[in-house]
Design brief:
This protein is of the alpha+beta class and about 300 residues long. The protein is built from ten helices and eleven strands. Helices cover about 35% and strands about 25% of the residues.
């Protein structure tokens, strides 16, 4: 192959209680990445469309991630990357992760797949670090592996793939304001009260158990955030109203997607998820603010060739 086209999906990170460790993959919304071999050595960004991101290869997460891969697999072949952005940067839906994951996934295939999917997370981390200022894989892991994932460690990549109940559906509302991940991380408290930490890791453990046992009541009780949400929710328009509408309409739980401003609600079944989405949309109607809405099952495949 001299060229390949991949779809790299959006993702929801943190999943309310699992800051920097939990995430899951969405359907339908994502970036289209086209990578072609080139006689010119190095990695080049040929074009970007959809949303504005840097074309300088030293400042683009896709090319930075590929450069990291090529340091471990030197080749005289060059690569040109075309990015059709379907995920708005600063949305909280893993825009930088989608581009980084899509690029390394495509280049790995063009090289004959010398690396496993899990190996690719290490290289995509370099792009994500550029975007947010810190290394975290809670978006990257589900995009590469699909489904729900738990990041136990990134010092030595250790990712646990978690099951997803078939009728677990996510409703997403994305207010069209930009919220940089670096800023949303900078405002977080540097210290956490022990009682809040205990409640938080108890919820993470319970959520993992709920996914394995398909215990929706336990899942619902687990979707509480005592550490991050109290601070970040202040950055999101009508956060309390959105949360109230989601829960009142039957959602199992509600939270900030990544660093926001997108928010998500998990529901059992498509019908409930649709009702939840309509109710959340109404909460933003009084504002002079554009927003996007999505309903998705948990995407089990992750990044894929199209």
């Amino acid at each position: 192959m001299d060229s390949i086209v991949v779809f790299s999906p959006a993702s929801v990170a943190n999943v309310t209680c699992g800051f920097d460790v939990l995430g899951f993959c969405l359907d339908h919304v994502g970036d289209k990445i086209i990578v072609s071999k080139s006689n010119t050595p190095g990695v080049h960004i040929a074009s970007v469309s959809g949303f504005r991101v840097p074309v300088n290869p030293k400042q683009n997460v896709a090319s930075v991630a590929v450069e990291a891969l090529l340091r471990d697999y030197p080749t005289s072949t060059g690569f040109e990357i075309e990015i059709e952005k379907g995920i708005k940067p600063g949305s909280g839906l893993g825009s930088s992760a989608a581009s980084a994951c899509g690029a390394v996934f495509a280049v790995n295939l063009l090289l004959g797949s010398p690396f496993s999917r899990r190996d690719l997370i290490k290289y995509a981390l370099e792009g994500e670090s550029l975007a947010s200022g810190e290394r975290h894989a809670d978006n990257l892991a589900p995009v590469i592996l699909g489904g729900f994932t738990l990041v136990r460690s990134i010092d030595e990549i250790d990712i646990i793939e978690l099951p997803s109940p078939e009728d677990l559906i996510v409703s997403v509302v994305h207010p069209k304001i930009e919220l940089k991940t670096s800023y949303a991380r900078a405002i977080l408290k540097k210290e956490v009260l022990l009682r809040d930490a205990v409640r938080q890791w108890a919820n993470v453990g319970a959520l993992v158990s709920a996914l394995y046992t398909q215990d929706y009541r336990l899942l619902s009780r687990s979707l509480q955030d005592f550490v991050i949400e109290p601070t970040r929710s202040m950055l999101i328009p009508e956060f309390d109203a959105l949360k109230h509408e989601a829960i009142s309409s039957g959602a199992l739980g509600f939270g900030i997607s990544g660093s926001g401003p997108a928010v998500f609600a998990l529901s059992q079944g498509q019908k409930t998820a649709q009702s939840v989405l309509q109710s959340m949309s109404k909460a933003l109607d009084p504002l002079d603010l554009d927003f996007d809405c999505y309903i998705s099952s948990i995407n089990q495949q992750g990044v894929r060739v199209i």
